[in-house]
């Protein structure tokens, strides 16, 4: 046994001497070229190809890294996914504005996945970063990244579609894990510290379609319409239409219009943008607000008949102009026009939003700057609204919110108190 250890020590000494000799005799450039040549020979004989996805691309965060991290967290936490059994050590995280705990790969661990019948392997590589000199943006102490291993024969079949699938799945997980937000526009279009004209708070409204007291057939119709809209990306793309839809909720006060909006947001998992028109001064500000809204959101204008003066477009103004009926033009804003500062019904407000600006906001070119948006208008007096605002394509579905009948009251009492009316 002693001779074995002596021989091993001698061999280690010879290897160390050879390594020192190689570093002394062979220049670094030649060693680097030999290493690259060895890697190329290895890649030629290997049946796999490798792709690295680093956390930071230069000085910017790599969005694909975040998408892969979210996707693998769902795969690792799924009990029905065979990929979950390939990793015995997972990390737990809880993100900002999130009520869910997500799983993730631990440092230098690997996870297998199957896509369209093809098996791939992910490995989470974490290495210490070399000490950095002065930088305006200090980098993390650790260098993180994912390595994707795919069989060469499967590369042209799944690589692009697999990455697209991961990105889409990550967006879905992000929306599911994040708490929904309720936005409101700042006065005069002023920007917050991040340069956004919207201020937000967590949206915790408990209203759902199960708690709404309304006609079951009408409720089922609305839910089916919302579901078709959310799943209708291919339809809107095939027909060349913007992926948006408009709902008009009208009826007497106190009939649940706001609760209906909350139920729609909870049903689809969308954020809500509560647009206060009286805080918007011009059509240009209105367009800028629309540009700063995100996809998969509900844009709400409540009591639109009371917000600004949009009801007298067909009446001649002080210079004898009469608006057309197609919504393409309307009374011009100004000192004597509707909505101008001298309008007695405007109470001195400098708001100069026109009907044309609002129609372009909901159905013009600017309404196509995002996708999967729902516009919801509410009013107590539908007869006061201009017909151009109500036509299909702008307000696609009109929902009358009426007072409760005896059946609805009985349903409410049963849910609240657990008793049935006699």
Annotation keywords:
422 residues, alpha/beta, four-stranded antiparallel sheet, 12 helices, 15 strands, elongated
Q: Biggest sheet, open or closed, and with what strands and sense?
A: 7 strands, mixed
- What is the CATH homologous superfamily assignment of the largest domain? P-loop containing nucleotide triphosphate hydrolases
Count of separate structural domains: 2
Elements, N to C (H/E): HHEEEHEEEEEHEEHHEHEHEHHEHEH
Strand content: 15-25%
Q: What overall geometry do the principal axes of the alpha carbons give?
A: elongated
Strand segment count: 15
Decide which structural class fits the backbone: alpha/beta
Helix content: 25-40%
Stretches with pLDDT under 50, minimum 5 residues: 315-348
CATH C-level of the largest domain: Alpha Beta
Lateral strand order in the biggest sheet? 10-9-12-13-14-11-15
Instruction: Calculate the mean pLDDT score and round it.
Output: 77
Gyration radius from CA atoms, angstroms: 31 Å
Can you tell me the CATH topology of the largest domain? Rossmann fold
Count of helical stretches: 12
Keywords: Hydrolase, Magnesium, Signal
Protein name: AAA+ ATPase domain-containing protein
GO molecular function, one term: ATP binding
Organism: Artemisia annua (Sweet wormwood)
């Amino acid at each position: 046994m002693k001779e074995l250890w002596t021989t091993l020590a001698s061999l280690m000494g010879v290897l160390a001497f050879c390594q020192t000799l190689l570093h002394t005799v062979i220049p670094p450039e030649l060693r680097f070229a030999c290493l690259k040549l060895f890697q190329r020979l290895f890649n030629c004989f290997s049946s796999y190809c490798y792709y690295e996805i680093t956390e930071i691309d230069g000085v910017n965060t790599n969005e694909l890294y975040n998408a892969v991290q979210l996707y693998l967290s769902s795969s690792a936490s799924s009990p029905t996914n065979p990929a979950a059994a390939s990793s015995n050590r997972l990390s737990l995280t809880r993100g900002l504005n999130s009520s869910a705990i997500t799983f993730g790969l631990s440092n230098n661990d690997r996870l297998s996945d199957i896509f369209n019948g093809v098996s791939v392997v992910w490995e989470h590589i974490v290495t210490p970063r070399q000490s950095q000199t002065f930088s305006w943006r200090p980098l993390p102490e650790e260098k993180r990244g994912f390595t994707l291993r795919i069989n060469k024969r499967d590369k042209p079949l799944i690589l692009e579609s697999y990455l697209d699938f991961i990105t889409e799945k990550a967006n879905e997980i992000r929306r599911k894990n994040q708490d929904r937000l309720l936005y409101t526009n700042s006065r005069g279009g002023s920007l917050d510290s991040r340069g956004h004209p919207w201020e937000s708070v967590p949206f915790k409204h408990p209203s759902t379609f199960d708690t709404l007291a309304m006609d079951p057939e009408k409720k089922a119709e609305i839910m089916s319409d919302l579901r078709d809209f959310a799943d209708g990306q291919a339809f809107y793309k095939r027909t060349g239409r913007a992926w948006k839809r408009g709902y008009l909720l009208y009826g007497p006060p106190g009939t649940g219009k706001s609760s209906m909006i909350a139920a729609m947001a909870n049903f689809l998992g969308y954020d809500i943008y509560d647009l206060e028109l009286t805080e918007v001064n011009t059509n240009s500000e209105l367009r800028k607000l629309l540009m700063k809204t995100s996809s998969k959101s509900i844009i709400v204008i409540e009591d639109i008949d009371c917000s600004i003066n949009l009801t007298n477009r067909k009446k001649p103004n002080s210079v004898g102009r009469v608006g057309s009926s197609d919504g393409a033009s309307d009374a011009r804003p100004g000192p004597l026009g509707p909505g101008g500062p001298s309008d007695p019904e405007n109470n001195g407000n400098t708001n100069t939003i026109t009907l044309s600006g609002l129609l372009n906001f909901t159905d013009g070119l600017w309404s196509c700057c995002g996708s999967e948006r729902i516009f919801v208008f509410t009013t107590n007096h539908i007869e006061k609204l201009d017909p151009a605002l109500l036509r299909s394509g702008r307000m696609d579905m009109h929902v009358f919110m009426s007072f409760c009948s005896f059946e609805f009251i009985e349903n409410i009492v049963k849910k609240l108190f657990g008793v049935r009316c006699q």
